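Fig. S4 source data, part A: sequence.
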Amino acid sequence: MKLCFLVEEQYRHDGMPLDVIRQLTAWGHQVDVLWPGRSLIRISEAIQAGSHDAWVLKTVSGGPGLTLLEAAASVGLTTVNDARAIRGVRDKALAAVIARSHGLPVPVTYAASGAAEFAAIPESEFPLVVKPADGSSGRAVRIVATPDGLTAPGGHPGAEPAGGGMLIAQPYVRNSGTDLKVYCVGGELYATERRSPLHPGRAVLERRVPLPAEVARITSEVGTAFGLDLYGVDIVLGPDGPVVVDINDFPSFRQVPDAVARVAGAVLHLARTGAGVPDTLARAPLTSTPVLVPAGTGAPVGSTR
């Protein structure tokens, strides 16, 4: 097969996906690599030619790679994951709406252009977890204990969105300081635990752990709701049960046994068969505007991511 990987500068030396690319090459497949952040791409010819069996994206949120992947999808080329599914999780405000509409246990979520606007949230919902709607890797995630902390001098670096982006806020849920990261690859689920970025002082050994049945069900439903095939879900175990706090397309797959071979095999399978996307996403435009999720009934749950 002939594949095209879109790899952002941040992952230029990362084993995921570079080791996957090497594995596919060792298996006899042709893999072309485009670097959206540091190379000239003759996009009209590269994509219109349709000379690749599939395009695969490993990118940062807000990076240029997603636009290229969407361009490939717009002319009918196979993408891994489906480009519309990726757009659905890259915008965390949009992801919250989609997830809640499918009955998934996600936090009540607010969106605003600046942290000060979250002062309108009832004080009973504090502390809040505030993060960029287009964030990744725990960037600029912070706990705000009281409304006064939203505009405190010397706040968290990078907490305000750049270039007119959005922030989201979610009520914090009490938890042990350990996140569950569940990966889906080749239809199989693997659970790992790691320290929460909001609890950096807690000593947690990153390792594989048994997968609770309820967490497995939720993770599978995330894939169905968003149309994802290769993905990871961050979950915290709160007082009222598991809560989904983040969804990632093409994550690191750390602690997954034989991760490189498994991911490479899954990429080939998806390149041959294509990847489906739910009707709710198929009807949506490729770009979207973050929206406010109003507080629902019942006890609010929150996020550590």
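Fig. S4 source data, part B ends here. The two ends are 37 Å apart (CA to CA).
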